[in-house]
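Q: Here's a chain of 336 amino acids. Please give me its 3D structure as tokens.
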Amino acid sequence: MPDTDHRRWSALPAESDTIDSSPRPFPSPSLETTAVSLSLTRAIVEQCPTQLTARHRQQFSELGYIALAGVLSESEVVAARQALTELTHRLMQAARRGEGEVKQARPGATLNYAGPQVVTQGGGCAIHFEAGIDPLELSDDEAEDRFRKIHGYQDGHPTFQQLVAHPRIQGFIGDLIGQQMLLKDVMALSKPPFIGSEKPWHQDNAYFNYLPLELIGTAWIALDDTTVDNGCMHLLPGQHTRGALRHHHTIDCEILADRIEPEQAVPVELKAGGVLFFSAMLPHQTPPNSSPLRRRALQFQYRGVETRKVSKEEYGKIFAEADGTPASCALAYETG
């Protein structure tokens, strides 16, 4: 990252360390913001402060993200990894006892959902694998090494319950969004060495149906050092201000290729314990893991206390392109 980019943000005033409870609508993209966004070759990453300031809030408002190193301590990272190990082993052992279900992909599933998943009784938690893997043939350790995604695990271990309410996670995303936040969803995202697949370009709000759009945000927590080679996050800084971009179903639910310019993307390389906070309107992507190193992350998605859930039809009228074309994943099945 060029020094000039960092100075551009470091020079902003840091006069307030208190939470402003008013929602922060996305600003119209300025020439200055556009120029800074295009000049970045790496995302801006700084050491985690005790409290966020006006400078952090301005960067989040204009670029759609902040990335902080050292949000979690080394001991917290170790505890999170251990909790993920225990959860994975417990899920697999339950499946072998018949206390869960192995679900195969539905016909016509996109590539990222072509693999099987192990679902707990009641369907509260599921562990997804890449295509071609038979999870019941794996040992507990092999399953942990090779899973693609786990969702619905927030109550599966005390460590996760603590992390979703962590003051430097839930508290920080609330400060950036501008109001108290509620947990919406959790995922554990893994890219196994050499086989970890791409997550294509998307906006998180394409998967949701909560309004207002600007009151949704994500905390992406690195449990391993993340690099370009092992599939770190990539962003299009400032592009959250463009509004909804049409999604369709190919590799996954993803933004139509002609809606974005991937050459403007910047990678966010984080050490374990670093956290990326970003707007649910910001286009982002993770490439395949081409390295011998595993890449694990926890993803917590939050919504403001003033958000409301709406029908997919009502949502499609708001999460839509300028000409009114619905842009969500749910309506992409119907519009083609």
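Q: Can you summarize the key feature?
A: Residues 1-38 have pLDDT under 50 and may be disordered.
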